[in-house]
Structure formats: C-alpha cells, structure tokens
Amino acid sequence: MSGNNPFDNAMAQLKKAAAYLPQTKELKQKLEILKEPQRIINVTIPVKMDDGIVRIFQGYRVQHNDARGPYKGGIRFHPQVSMDEVKALAFWMAMKCAVADLPLGGGKGGVIVNPKELSAGELERLSRGYARAIADCIGPDKDVPAPDVNTTGQIMGWMVDELIKIRGVKNKRDKEKLSSTFTGKLIKDGGSEGREEATGLGGLFVLQTVLTKLGKKGKLTAAVQGFGNVGFNVAKFLDEVGFKVIAVSDSKGAIFVPGGINPKLTLECKRKNGYLAGCYCSGSVCDLTKGKQISNEALLELDVDVLVPAALESVITKENATRIKAKVILEMANGPTTPEADTILYKRGISVIPDILANSGGVTVSCFEWEQNLKGQHWTKDQVNKKLKEKMQKETNAVWETSKKLKTDLRTSAFVVATNRILKAMK
Ligand code: NAD
C-alpha cells in the first residue's frame, strides 16, 4: 500500500480489524456496506467577492454511516481538500464516535478554499453559502457538523443563523433546538463549557489510563509536535499533572528546553514574537540560556517517555519509525502514523494510542453540546469534565482489554471495538 491515499489507508485499517471479527456471511455483507459512504454531497457555492465578482467554490459533505445516530463530523476550509480526504475523515468519524460509544455516526465536510485569502465578509458569505447548500441534508437528528481545520465557533454561528432563516424558525426554544445542528459554537450561541480544551483534556485522560496499565509512573517526559489548540492544551495538562514537557513545535520549528517548558508562558511568548524560537520558558521565566531550537523532525526522535504528534498527518513514517525513542505515542493529530510505520513501532514494543481514541475527547464534548441544546440545558465546566473523564477511562479500558484478548495493537483493537458496535447497530 502506498500510504498516500487517506481513504485507502482507512480501508486497510478496517480490513485488519475485520480479520478479528466472526466471519459469518451476514457480518461480511454488513462490512461491505460499512466500506462505502452512504451519501456524498457535491455542492457549488457562488460567493460575491468584495470586488463585486462572483466566485464559485467547490464543497463536499460525506455522510459515511448513521447506524448509531446522526452523522457527525467537522467542516474543513482548506485549499487541499479532496474527496478522498473527506471520505477518509468521514469514515474515521464513524469509528471515533463508535469507539467513544456516542449515539452518533460519521460524516465530514470540506470546501476547497484558502480562507486566509478571504476578507471577513467573504468568509462569512462563503460559510452561509455552504450552510445553504447542505441545509436539506443536515439537522439535529440527521447530520451534525462542527468546526475542523480553519473553521471556528464564529463560523458555526453564521451557519446556525443561516439555517434558522431557511427554516423560518421564530420561537426561542425551537431556535435553540435547531442550533444543535452545529456543535463547537461559541458559548454565547449555545456552545458547551469545556469544548475548547476537550480534545487535549480527553487525550490526557486516555494517556493516564494507558500509563497505569503499562505500570509507568514517576516524573515522565514528553515532547509535543504542534502548539495550536490541541498541542498547547495537551502540553498544559501534561505539565499540570507533573510531566516534564521538554519540547514543543509549530510550523516554523521546534524548541527543546531540557528543564521542561512552562506552556502558558511559552504561549504568551509565541504570541508576542509570532514564533516559538527563543521562547525557552521554564519555571517562571523565559531565558535564552534555558533551551535551543531544533527541527520538527528532531523533536519526533527525542528520547522521551511520551511523544505527542498534535499537528499534521503522516509525520511518523517507515523512514523515521526505527529512530523513534519514545515508549508511548499519543496520537492527538488525525492520522499522524502511516500503516508501514505502525507495523515497525508495534514490533519495537512502542505503544501507539490511536487517534480515534486519543483525540475523541473533542467529539465527546461536541456530543454533550448537542445533548444540552436538545434538552435546553447548560452544564458547568466541572460537570462536562467529569463526564468526559468517566467516558475516556471507560472506553480506553474497553480498547485495552480487547487488545489483550486479541493479542494485537491498540489501533486494531480500537477498530475492532468500533466496528463491532457499528455492525451491531446496522439493520
Ligand atoms: P491548530 O491549527 O490549532 O494547530 C496546528 C498546529 O500545528 C499549529 O501550532 C501549527 O503551527 C502546527 N503545525 C503546522 N504545520 C506544522 C509542521 N509542519 N510541523 C509542526 N507543526 C506544524 O489545529 P488543532 O485544532 O490543534 O489540530 C491539530 C490536529 O489535531 C489536527 O490533525 C486535527 O485534525 C486534530 N484534531 C483536532 C481536534 C480539535 O478539537 N481541535 C479534534 C480532533 C483532532
């Protein structure tokens, strides 16, 4: 397998997991159904640009499977959005929601656009246009989108507003119910407390559960690739529970601070400078003598207990997998490890905590948001985090037990758990 086509990679993962399922005729037929998206929606979005010219954007919504509940998955605005990518992401969302045991299926959307080239007004018109284009196919009990790469709570707010207009909803409670069509909204628009940190916090709960199983304790070290929403929050939570986070990175490179970074100070410094280089913030000061700059590639190969890829896909490959020194890899990004690298890491005894489990905290709190809007409730951050912790621990235990029973890696067992749940729900 090439490792380049994300949908092929996703199908390879499913095939590997399927080998562990009972080989009955009925199950095989259901598996064939699970391999294909149930619906692919292609849309064109005309947007009046600031210069008065109408530009046509291409968008997609892939609804992979809804056996367990409404389709669920983000909307990505990116110049490299492709149908194969959106299809793979929709399939992984179905798996992620099932492994987290949420009453949701899998979907994903995307628009081919570089949002950085749009003005604020153009971005709003594009967002509203996309919502109009897919309006017939979404709804609280049909398909529930959310933010993904380059889309935000504000964008979800515009989309909700557009849907309310299209459906002509006037009543406050009906508006609130309809707003559950989109999650990841700003709190003022009905968003959930704790959503912003949920992916990172969920990752911490998953990691702690696995480390306990592995019998690893004491002052552990970690390196985190990426310092965006997920990377920063993971670094912050790891630091808070006593890890020494010795390296973090962004697209411009990595910093190595042997004494352990102070994530909050490092973020402040990065915001001020625009980049991480020189932000060697440890304890309560940032000091150039406390660290040095290294490459993103070097960060991945540091001698740490836990490596956290939290930026891009396919960064751990067959080329560098033999040089990884971490004992545990917590996949916070989607698809950071290629299938070839996975095999090498497993043989080397490195525990890879798969993305569909490790980063499922985000969709879990999205599910809480959907539930709160439908019930007309607003939970406190403590309530949200408590529910998140219970869920992450329970589902990590289920994946761990399956891996012991089947004598296989955590990714395959997560897929087995998820596939079993979906096939059971399929009529
Ligand atoms: P983000 O845009 O906030 O942050 C991405 C980070 O990656 C930035 O710090 C950026 O500088 C860095 N980066 C970009 N190119 C890089 C490179 N070549 N090398 C190293 N770092 C680079 O995005 P995010 O929301 O933090 O998402 C990160 C990953 O986590 C993505 O794979 C995303 O799909 C996944 N994820 C996010 C969520 C969520 O709730 N935000 C949920 C599940 C999965």
UniProtKB/TrEMBL annotation:
The record marks 148 as: Important for catalysis. Keywords: NAD, Nucleotide-binding, Oxidoreductase. Substrate binds at residues 72, 96, 366. PROSITE patterns: GLFV_DEHYDROGENASE. NAD(+) binds at residues 199, 229. One of its GO terms (molecular function) is glutamate dehydrogenase (NAD+) activity. Residues 192-427 form the Glutamate/phenylalanine/leucine/valine/L-tryptophan dehydrogenase C-terminal domain. InterPro entries: Aminoacid_DH-like_N_sf, Glu/Leu/Phe/Val/Trp_DH, Glu/Leu/Phe/Val/Trp_DH_C, Glu/Leu/Phe/Val/Trp_DH_dimer, Glu/Leu/Phe/Val_DH_AS, Glu_DH, NAD(P)-bd_dom_sf, NAD_bind_Glu_DH. The active site is at residue 108. GO terms for biological process: L-glutamate catabolic process. Pfam families: ELFV_dehydrog (PF00208), ELFV_dehydrog_N (PF02812). Belongs to the Glu/Leu/Phe/Val dehydrogenases family. This is Glutamate dehydrogenase. It comes from Candidatus Gottesmanbacteria bacterium RIFCSPLOWO2_01_FULL_43_11b. The lineage of its organism: Bacteria, Candidatus Gottesmaniibacteriota.
